[in-house]
What we know:
By secondary structure, this protein is an alpha+beta fold. The chain has helices at residues 2-13, 41-48, 90-97, 99-111, 139-157, 160-171, 174-180, 185-203, 207-223, 231-244, 256-266, 274-280, 285-296, 300-318, 323-329, 335-346, 350-358; strands at 15-21, 26-31, 53-57, 62-69, 72-78, 121-124. It is built from 17 helices and six strands. It has a six-stranded mixed sheet, with helices on both faces. The two termini are 16 Å apart.
Amino acid sequence: MxxxxxxxxxxxxxxxxxxxxxxxxxxxxxxxxxxxDFSEAKDFALKAQKHTYSLINSTNFFTINxxxxxxxxxxxxxxxxxxxxxxxxxxxxxxxxxxxxICQLVYEIYTNTSSPTDEIHICSxxxxxxxxxxxSLDADMLSLNDLNIKISLSILRHDNQQFLLWKTKxxxxxxxLSELDSKFASNMLVExxxxxxxxxxxxxxxxxxxxxIKNKIYTIIDHIKIQKVNIKLLDQILCIxxxxxxxxxxxxxxxxxxxxxxxxxxxxxxPLNLVDxxxxxxxPLKHLNPAFKSQYDLTINQYIRRRKILISKNLxxxxxxxxxxxxxxxxxxSQSYFVSTFKKLVGQTPSEYRNNCKK
Length: 359
């Protein structure tokens, strides 16, 4: 049961999950969403065994670690690189902003006891012992994440004025400039190509066309590895993806109903409404529900509520998280709205459902 719930979470947030025994140095895979060379698992575990919850950064990726006992760890690895400050999608930013709740959730799943309220310890794999900080991210990193989101939204909405504004700010960002001047410059460019490609594929742009474009850009990046990367290359990459949406709306690769469902499924842990979906899919509001209902026999809001309640039911059964924590985690605006929605769909309150399942 615990593994089933964790697998469910890893699918939502695109994580790899591992069980690690610090005493025997044995690593067991619980769930994998992407390929990863995790040969450094022992090094991460030695750092992580000092704290109940920790986030440990390395050059290529980072781990979220939950210490269950003195020698047993759950290790979560998101499919993005913290070192280069690039997020794969909006759910990653949401997950990081709810990091402590997720750590507590995993702790309760596996220990069946109330989770400690310890703060998250954040450090680098090769750094000195970490300094205790709260579970908010560094202000400069958040600023860069905000820029990435602004640029992504301007691309999806094809808002030329906003795109030029946020692109200019991004290209002047001190982290971007330092990355482009370091040995990781090509890695950073590759990550931006990956970020933008996922964005457009999720929007509905033909994946085979995106992969073709990605391969051409990767060839260019590989060719310039021996030279100094010019910031104009990142500028050109951003413009390429912005311009890809010019004619896409006239040649959709997927039915609108499928685009809507994909968007909801990828963002189900966030508050969702028709206006946001309309803006992000660059589709008139009046077209959304007719297209979706004709395919799935549900309105969009009905589908959103059912998906959120399904996640909530699993969390109620497998954890001792409060109703407020669960409401936050699945993107309800308030606990009261979560409770009323749950009772309407399930026929009992979340507390009644949890108690009946325990019996």
